[in-house]
Amino acid sequence: MAEETTQDSATINPILENIYQQPEELHRVLNDLTTERLETVKEVARLANLAGEIVLTSMGSALYSLMPMYEALLDRGMRNVTLVETAELIHHPERVSKHALYILMSRSGESREVADFSVWLTEHGYTSVAITMTPTSTMGQHCTVMLHDIASYDKIVCIKAYSSMALCGLFVAHMMDHDEPDPTYVARLHAAFDWMEENKKNWLCAIEQIPFLSSADSFYMLSRAQGINMMRSASLWLEETAKVPANVMSLDNFYHGPMELIRAQKITKSKTVPVLLDVLGDDRSRMIWNYITQAQPENIYIGPAGSDMDATVYVELPDLELDGAHMMLVQALYFQLLSYQCAIANNIEPGMFFEEGWIVQ
After folding, report:
1. Which residues contact 24 (CB under 8 A, 6 or more apart)?
2. By Cβ atoms counted within 10 A, which residue in 194, 236, 269, 292 is the most buried?
3. Coil, strand or helix: which one is 290?
């Protein structure tokens, strides 16, 4: 049974409500992808397998939603896949290849760059795919194929939208190797969403006990491999939801210079909290993390069960029999809750925006 949190007896914040709704929405989207949307998914997978190159592109949160798909495609051995901001393709049309399949992702389908680029692709005869929650949008109407993400809209920032669109991309990558969905794969995803539902309040309760969130001036988000892209998403949520800066770097590159920021904590005016998502751990990562924890005793470690890494806050990830790209759906839940509680700790309404409207023009 989930532990009680401070939100159980109060009016729930829209950000937290959307976070809590996430597991149920992922169940719903996966059921739709394996039934009503399956033929569309197969067509996208067919186009992807025929393409000489795959370009994944978007802006803002949807760009981060493409990262799990990007990692999944790399894991299946593809080396002709790129992940790029749509603005870069608009600024450099000479880099747009006729041999590529362009997969665009956007909640609204109306964000300035993706809307404009979808029109440009159609006008110039390029093959493209739209993954969107808004089928009638400019992007949805102009791309060659449109895959509808049926998840309900978030009230403010992309929370459910991050995970549901990421799931759509991951499922397309899965179907590139299958004629029909693998029942074991589908069952493991549903089991992961069940785990998220059962543990979401426990995770928030544990995060509420972290004593140093209110005194953290910034975070350094560290990892390896696909964990770096997970940390990029975590950084976005901390900055959007809690208004706290969060830098991102590989653990190994951090040791080549930026580590000095942690060593200098006693003489600097600001406090940086290091956060490690432990991926591909080995003796060197242990050595680097030990240096970090010795220099900054306030730190957060997220890693596999059974790890004996030293940390002030230790978060154990479950073994759900999913690869790294798919575990990003589970890890996202923790980082979204962390960003929510960081805002609360700093007396900021989580997710409040100074700019009204959720379509970037």
Report:
1. 193, 197
2. 292
3. helix
Q: Where are the alpha helices (DSSP H) in the chain?
A: 14-33, 38-50, 60-65, 67-75, 86-91, 112-123, 138-142, 160-175, 183-208, 226-241, 251-254, 259-263, 283-295, 324-345
Q: Helix, strand or coil for residue 315?
A: strand
- The two tokens of residue 117 are 């680029």
Which position has the token pair 């051995």? Answer: 77
Q: What one-letter code names the amino acid at 176?
A: M
| Polymer length of the chain | 361
d(C-alpha 103, C-alpha 132), whole Å: 11
The string of pLDDT tens digits covering residues 268-299 is 778 999 999 999 999 999 999 999 999 999 99
pLDDT in tens, 183-199: 999 999 999 999 999 99
pLDDT single digits (tens) 104-122: 999 999 999 999 999 999 9
Torsional sign, CA 55, 237, 213, 331? negative
Q: Which residues share a beta bridge with 240?
A: none
DSSP state string for 127-187: -EEEEES-TTSHHHHHSSEEEE--PPPPSSSSSHHHHHHHHHHHHHHHHTT-SS--HHHHH
Check residue 3 and give left, alpha or beta (phi > 0: left; psi -120 to 50: alpha). beta
